[in-house]
Write a structure and sequence with these properties.
Blueprint lengths: L1 E4 L6 E4 L6 H7 L6 E7 H17 L3 E7 L8 H14 L7 E5 L1 H13 L6 E5 L2 H7 L4 E6 L2 E8 L4 E3 L10 H18 L1 H9 L1 H5 L4 H21 L14 H11 L6 H19 L6 H8 L13 H8 L12 E6 L2 E5 L4 H13 L1
Parallel strand pairs: 2-9, 3-4, 3-5, 5-6, 6-9
Antiparallel strand pairs: 1-2, 7-8, 10-11
Helix pairs in contact: 3-4, 4-5, 5-6, 5-9, 6-7, 6-9, 6-11, 10-11, 10-13, 11-12, 11-14
Length: 360
Amino acid sequence: MAVHVDLGARSYTVHFRSLSEVPTLLDEAGLPPERCLLVTDENVAAHYRTPLAEGLSEADWTVRSIVLPPGEATKSASHLHSIYNEALDWGMDRQTPVLALGGGVIGDLAGFAAATLLRGVPLVQLPTSLLAQVDASVGGKTAINHATGKNLIGAFYQPQLVCADPRTLDTLPMREYTSGMAEVVKHALIKDADLFARLQDNLVPVMAYKDRDVVSTVIEQAVRVKAEVVSADEREEGRRAILNFGHTFAHALERVAGYGAFPHGEAVALGMRAGLYLSHRRHPEALPRDRIDHVIDAIPVQDDPSSVPFSKLYEAMSADKKNQGDTIRFVLLRRLGEAYVTGEVTRAQARQAWAFACST
């Protein structure tokens, strides 16, 4: 299976293949075996760094590995500079690809390093988490966090290729897996009613990771949604903003609670609950709220968000990168499979939506 991201000269393919095939995929992408910088985290390295590095070495690649701590706190300026220092001390040149092996944190961080080292070196995304496979690795968004907000320092920088090995989900903690499902549900809600129906019909085996064939199909469908949106609006100048459904609340929660306190997908699930509340208030006849609630509520949120003061949450929303001037912009649903962006949500309405999200 493969999904093409059509961006003209910056086009690339998302391959659903084994990590053992990465040397072949690099060759097919026109990257000759020389040197590569492999960036990963401690958890992923324990499972996949050695076999991947050995496979690359057998294909005549010289591999330099950087292993970072896991978690959202790693998306920082200090860890970015540690990559810079390692790469430049090694003598990296503009033909040296950066291989981002890991979840969304590694993909964002290593991707931003690739975008900025020597004004840009080749980037290869090797996502090992569900969230990274269906969302973070596709579309070219790279970033680190700032005290003011999440992902505020970054660049649009497309990879040469993406290799999403479905078997890496076997070693993913269940909480990370269900967290990643939030992005799958989001893609269904904003643009693919058929994907939503598939999720609804197979909710228990999909959420429990019991039916690998159905999960693989769902992942491919979700990636196709992301690829279609990105192909139409690479730099989020218009339509791509719908991919932020649930994220205005989510990013604010992550910032206020502290990065890593809530897994990103769980924060998105809460944000989608709030977004659905606002959407249903505007379009009560068009949205099958009970059906949507049932699917979103299947994503467990393990920690109580109600202790986060709404005043601080709303203040954090004011720094959201989607905003225009002083207007906080939210992504809402007009109907199942159709989303839009609006700045016409009052503070009182946002408060009510957040109270609803915290009560379910």
